[in-house]
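INPUT
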Amino acid sequence: MAQKGDLLSVRHDIRVVDATIRDGGLCNDFRFDDKFVSDLYKANNKAGVDYMEFGYKASRDFFSEDKFGKWKFCKDEDIRSIVGDAPSKTKIAVMADVGRTDFENDIIPKNESPIDLVRIATYINTIPAAVEMIEYCAKQGYETTINIMAVSKARTEDIKAALNILGQTPVSAFYIVDSYGSIYPEEARRLADMYGEIADKYNKLVGIHAHNNQQLAFANTIEAMTYGASYLDATVDGMGRGAGNCSLELLLGFLKNPKYKVYPILKIIEEHTSKLKAQGVKWGYDIPYMLTGQFNTHPRPAIQFVKEDRGDYFNFANELYDIINS
Amino acid sequence: MAQKGDLLSVRHDIRVVDATIRDGGLCNDFRFDDKFVSDLYKANNKAGVDYMEFGYKASRDFFSEDKFGKWKFCKDEDIRSIVGDAPSKTKIAVMADVGRTDFENDIIPKNESPIDLVRIATYINTIPAAVEMIEYCAKQGYETTINIMAVSKARTEDIKAALNILGQTPVSAFYIVDSYGSIYPEEARRLADMYGEIADKYNKLVGIHAHNNQQLAFANTIEAMTYGASYLDATVDGMGRGAGNCSLELLLGFLKNPKYKVYPILKIIEEHTSKLKAQGVKWGYDIPYMLTGQFNTHPRPAIQFVKEDRGDYFNFANELYDIINS
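OUTPUT
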């Protein structure tokens, strides 16, 4: 394994992706006020953030517009009402789940849309459906990435087979997604190396999307980066499902390319995410998330524990053992 | 650089050091109730923790007993009232600051004391005074370690010179101390390798004491470990000055030696540290600590900011720039 650059290098392959509205939306059912989204878009432009993910392109057959805010659906007109028509430095991304996106209707030709990048989220067993979506979106003119979720539960030989299939599509990058926040820096390096070897063969890049269950989201992100990853997901104040994500302000403070600036993001924390927290929206490292991370399992029971304001960590650990083994 | 072991190895050189009362005492002036300290001692024994640090052996010429709780001074009789006389698996440690310890009076012969290990804390410029203390404590019969603080501000050639002097003393281990929480995993590995090379020459071990300013305390601890460190400092719920430390529960959940168990520590969080937090004792990752970490500077202004319940992060970052450059 070889490092790409050192602590003072500027790596021009790096793309910082702000996923605050998308992953953070999982904490508040995508109910952000327009001022937050608009301020964040402006801050991302100032901070040098390369992409801002606005939410999901979810199918309205699966999710009701009564139950979720508009960023669950990311209609083109809603994005345009935030970003306007002027060209900007920060590109626009949305996430599209395999199997729950009505892509043939909702993903219109790129030249009619403010969206630049469609991030296709899949599990290892739905790769052929992901390939279909990649090819559809590419044909419509979009950049695409593929986010293979729950990598800590996937077998190495399956990941390699999947990446070799995906290498033959127009996708730009293969994402390592640590959905359960269970991987360690040593594994982040190894995965970056393994993904990178196949990516190089097909002239693709590698990305990382980390969760903070074990306070390792930032560490795993920069370690994967050091060993080759280029697309780096982060969110303001780590906002995201359960233990949340790699904090954008930690990442921007680490990167050496002078185009990246942490200050505009501090303003967003001050004016927006701190307020959400004060209003009771919950995310971030906590003991039950640590336990689901250590157990390499979905954070669902931990989210429930935190929601119920329980504090009996010992019992929870005991219950978790049964949940996983039942 | 070579890894020592992999993610499934049991490393018999590992010593987990619980520093909750000592580093955590900096958050509440060492005012822990006896039940906390006693429960923690029992939990550490059950959890397989190798050492429990009870506090400082501070000189009463420098610090008043009216202003601080008893664990600032760690009188032998106070420790004995917690641990009794029965032999236990967890050994007892105290910290002694170079220049602020009346060691010739306060550190009595080991055979009259419950203390096993004296951890001598020094800056790079007071190594000769540290050597004097190591030799004194060793002569009294104690194990010793040397904690060279603020390593991120020390020059490599000075660190090497210091370690070569310390190698000739009876000290057991050289500690990497990231006082400002500013080092990255890549640097933790490099420091572990550099300390380890000199340690090997003198048959010493290496330790790491990390701070969580950039959410890297756990990552840096396990990375330094993977590249050779044996003494690993951690605290319950990361309790410690400012952003706090490596969380003991994260570390115990990571280690593979079956003697280490996380469950007893969950009980301590549930019954003690959660309550301290609810009572308003403050520690843990927060934006101002992130900034002092990124700036590689003492957390003092950040501690003040948090104490004052300020939320204007942008102004703080701006002020910090002036504080550091004035």
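end of record. The interface with chain B takes residues 3, 6-7, 184-187, 212, 214-220, 222-223, 226, 237, 247, 249-250, 253-254, 262-263, 266-267, 269-270, 274, 285, 287, 290-291, 294, 311-314, 317 of chain A (CB under 8 Å).
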